[in-house]
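Field guide to reading this record: the first block holds the primary sequence, the second block holds the structure written as discrete tokens, and the final block holds curator observations. Each block starts with its own label. This record concerns DUF3800 domain-containing protein, catalogued under organism Variovorax gossypii.

BLOCK 1 — SEQUENCE
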Amino acid sequence: MIPTRTRPYGCIPTKLCTANSQAINNLIQVTAHISWRSIAAMDVMDFYGDESCCHGGDHFLVIGGIAIPQIQVSSMEDRLRAVRATHPKHLANSEVKWSNTSRAVLNFYKEFSDVFFDAAKNGEAKFTSLCMDKRTFNHKTYNAGDPDIGFNKMVYQLLLHKVGKVWGKTHRITVKLDHRTSKDDPNELCPMLNHHLKRQGIDTSPFKRIEFKDSKKSELIQLNDLLIGTLGANHNKKTGAAHKQELADHIMKQAKNTCHPKSIYGWSATTFKVWPFEFRGR
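BLOCK 2 — STRUCTURE
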């Protein structure tokens, strides 16, 4: 992180001799070089995000994602593919989605979700999310009648408060969102997020890229779909068939057992967090 300047570089007292002034200038240049080099050497945190219950008559919307150091991504994807390899191809080769949960894939989906919780226990990954009541979000009043604007606002809130403020001082951050139909480029959020963080003392411009990614080509976005799908179903009290309820119970039990203390709500939650978001514009 670049050291905070207590006064402008130009405010060097005039009584300093030329030699001392040159020494100070040299020190400034060396310090700046070291600071920028340290930023370049920062670890990269990848965040794989998506939303659940965005459409239809559900009251609660969940937006959440898995945060994982980029250096761990390949290893975790290998573990997910290894789980696929232990199940029949006609089941394991299809896209993993909460909405695709059936009795036939129940054990496969349980083992697939367990890869996250095993990684979380080892400090390799975390899940963070935002849950809000859509009835409190008036698109006509606050979003020019455009739900896409409302969705981007919620993504912005999650990335700012639960990703940028948490990892921005120590990591560069890249965000991969499940591809959705949108006229907006999600990367436009980067400068706004970095500007907001700078005003709060995080001046490393941590957000480097926000992009859409095809979920069919991402094991981690598919894994995240199970987690946010479970949360969405629980909050909307719509787990549905018995096999979906069994999967939801399994994931929620794992989530609570992984957190210390065993709560997924509030600031004390650790590896699996849910932020009950309340829209202030009501």
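BLOCK 3 — OBSERVATIONS
Residues 60 and 133 are 5 Å apart (CA to CA).
The chain has one domain: 43-277.
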